Amino acid sequence: MEILVCVKRVPDTAENEFELNGAGNDLDRDDLVYSVNEWDNYAVEEAIQMVDKMGGSVTVVTVGDDESEEILRREMAMGANNGVLLSDDAFEGSDGKGIATILKAEIEKGSYDLILTGAQADEGAGQVGGMVAAMLDYPYASLVNKIDVMDDKKIKVGREIEGGNQEMNEISLPCVLSIQTGINEPRYVGIRGIRKVSSVEIPVKSASDLGLDAASVGSAGAKTRRVDYFVPDMGEGAEMLEGSTEEIIAKLIEKLKAKGGL
Amino acid sequence: MTQIYAYIPFKNGSAEDVALEYPAAAKKIDAAAMLTAVVTGSGAELDSVATEMSKIYEQVIKVDNQALAYPNAEVVRKALVNIIPKDAILLVAHTTFGMDIAPGLSVKMDAAYAADIVDFEGIEGTRLKMVRQELGGAVSTHVTADISAGAVITIRPGAFAPVDGGAANGTITDKSADAGDLASTRKFLEVVEAEVGDVDITKSDVLVSIGRGIEEQENIELAQELATAMNAVVSCSRPIVDAKWLEKSRQVGTSGQTVKPKVYMAMGISGSFQHLGGLKGNPFIVAVNKNPKAPIFQVADVGIVTDILEFMPELTEAISSL
Description:
The complex is a heterodimer.
Chain A: E1 2-6, E2 9-11, E3 34-36, H1 38-54, E4 57-63, H2 69-78, E5 82-86, H3 96-109, E6 114-118, H4 128-136, E7 140-149, E8 154-160, E9 166-172, E10 175-179, H5 191-196, E11 204-205, H6 218-221, E12 224-230, E13 239-240, H7 245-258
Parallel strand pairs in A: 1-4, 1-6, 4-5, 5-11, 6-10, 7-10
Antiparallel strand pairs in A: 2-3, 7-8, 8-9
Helix pairs in contact in A: 3-4
Chain B: E1 3-7, E2 10-11, E3 14-15, H1 22-29, E4 34-41, H2 43-54, E5 59-64, H3 73-83, E6 89-93, H4 96-108, E7 112-117, E8 119-124, E9 127-134, E10 139-146, E11 151-155, E12 171-174, E13 186-192, E14 206-210, H5 220-229, E15 233-236, H6 238-242, E16 263-267, H7 273-276, E17 284-289, H8 296-299, E18 302-305, H9 308-320
Parallel strand pairs in B: 1-4, 1-6, 4-5, 5-12, 6-11, 7-11, 14-15, 14-16, 16-17, 17-18
Antiparallel strand pairs in B: 2-3, 8-9, 9-10
Helix pairs in contact in B: 3-4, 5-9
């Protein structure tokens, strides 16, 4: 099975405290720690396990700048066979549809049975997979937490739905699936693994390589735009308890007693 | 005039709460907009939801087809493409169904797309201004979308005030004949119900709930000791279940359990909306987190900025010696 996994380099929410920049319209990006989007690791792990069982290959692709190469290498260190970087100044400012348009152009150059994405990334929209599928007229299922291959034309997938329930679907190949965390346990990647793939050539493709009209992607083609970042006024928020640990605990115990917690 | 359509999700013959929240969202987009509810399904269940909606919405469209009996996003999408006018705004709840249908629908309608919107700030020219969150709720952003060729927008359930429904005497229009070909290459098979775990966290008045801040599996013992001292039960957020440290049945959130405790001890939980979506009944929330900017502090009643691994044993000891 030929599998393409779409991945993204994102600010690591576990490693950063997000602050606005001086102008207050963007994140202060100077010291941000980036990593591969958490959901994407599950998608890559799933792809590798499927290929281990059935043969074929796993390709990881991303839309980004030079710095995105590091996350492709990380996923190749996990076991992905190939990496492709889609990079062009014309891609800057793309909305979800712009990114989907770029990925679709690359997908059409290959011959993939299955295309995976993470269920969502840093922006939390969870939009690109469904858009790519619609553009290709492939079937789509989101939030997938189980994949069973039935034959070379059909798979059975479980979707995580509300209340911890699972919606089972039969879906024809080729298709696009967005992968939910928890579907597997992504393997650990050590320094040695990364070093092994450090000299592997990763092709970089531009808008013209992909046959894309620059006006259809990037900020030129974006119907949806981010205007600014801000910290919302959420009212008072929590009453913050301060002081020594003993003082904090004494205050907390009083409150817990009053509220039925003790 | 702006035309807004609201897709009504329902379960067991009754509309989900978001049906009462669309009107407030539509008003914030354009107070003069014409708002129409869209209900797709099959048979008596569909009719009862359509009737229920006609008491809230002046205009209701129903689409009845056996293929729509279960809301398979690929099938519903096909019907909606044929039923929603091309320049309209379609609102869909940002649920597991909304995430499944809406991005592809926006492509098929050649409309703008915006996901998980928590507020609207009106239309200027051809652009609708909206508020959403990024990075797990750590920051908010304004986004604008060109709605001149229509838009598909998912809204966050619970983000808009529900209307006191019941006064309208709306018209129900049957558009079943317009649904078109509903054949699909994705076939719904069945819903597998969540497994019942060793402990029912929905029955406990006090929950000691742990998130990423627990760091290691062996530290769960610290939470268990605190829970024992408080006569409480240990629950958790999603990463703990993904790591297979606790059973799925212990997970609080939209993809886990919905709980209504009196007191909720959020220990090392950042507070994503998916997590908070499982917390109902306005509990007293105590949040302990190392990160002073954790979103949980915006919704908690009491907050403490510290490491739970140091704090929990001290609190356990203090409570045990009461």
